[in-house]
Amino acid sequence: MSKSRRHQDTLKGRLLQYIWLAIPLGVVGLVAVFALMQGRNMQQSQEEPAGLVDEFVVDTPGATLPPLPEGIALPGTAIPDLGQEHVPADQQVEYNSNPPTSGPHHEEWARWGIYNEAPSDEQLVHNLEHGGIIISYNPALVEAEDLEQIRQQAEELSAINPRIIVTPRSEMPKAIALTAWGYLQELEAYDAAVVDEFYNAHIARGPECQDGQCPN
Fold it and tell me: What share of the chain is helix, strand, coil (3-state, %, to 5)?
């Protein structure tokens, strides 16, 4: 056999070795990529909150607000402050109002926006601590048309400051409840003017806010 032929056979042999080596490595690579993608999807699905239908993105501390005038009567009923303690994520807390307005809460707060399934009270109290306003509604007492108006008003208010949540709450006696840190206002029926007044008075006034600037 000529040297040229032997050289060609050697090259073919090496090429076949490389091919057979590359196939399992390629399979391993594909498996690794697939596993990584699955892991990311699992992480995303775990982080996606149940019931969030329209998220209000909070990416700034918010605009500076002047201090509230002393002696002014704020909208709603003042509820005794239960503190700001963080508790484990599996711990449930007994509050002094329905919905709650302060007290021990989980370290993780709910995303801002509109929900059709309620986050836990322990999350929502943390949102109040961050200066948020929560509009809770009893699905059995609120007409579909009013609910649509509530959601639309919340979207409009989110353009001013997106720290607002709309959530169902079947276990409360009134149709609608507005909550801020330390304050509760209950409504027999939807009233856009009352919602505006409560929002304007209490937004970005939580205990972790300074002059209207709050954590996300």
Answer: 35, 15, 45
How many whole angstroms separate alpha carbon 148 and alpha carbon 34?
42
CA-nearest of 174, 170, 173, 208 to 86 is 208
What residue numbers bound the domain in which 170 lies? 52-202
Distance from C-alpha of 54 to C-alpha of 113, rounded to nearest angstrom: 5
Same domain, 77 and 167: yes
Q: Are residues 135 and 41 in the same domain?
A: no
Chain position carrying tokens 């508790």: 87
Q: Is there a single domain that holds both residue 86 and residue 151?
A: yes
Could you give the CA distance from residue 61 to residue 64 in angstroms, rounded to a whole number?
9
Is the same domain home to 24 and 71?
no
Q: Is residue 178 part of a domain?
A: yes
Question: What pTM does this model have?
Answer: 0.78
Tell me the average confidence (pLDDT) per consecutive run of 10 residues in the chain, 216 residues long: 50 50 46 39 50 96 90 95 97 98 98 97 98 99 98 98 98 98 99 98 97 93
Q: What is the pLDDT of residue 107?
A: 96
Same domain membership, residue 121 and residue 21 = no
Q: Who contacts 132 (Cβ-Cβ below 8 Å, separation ≥6)?
A: 112, 163, 164, 165, 180, 203, 206
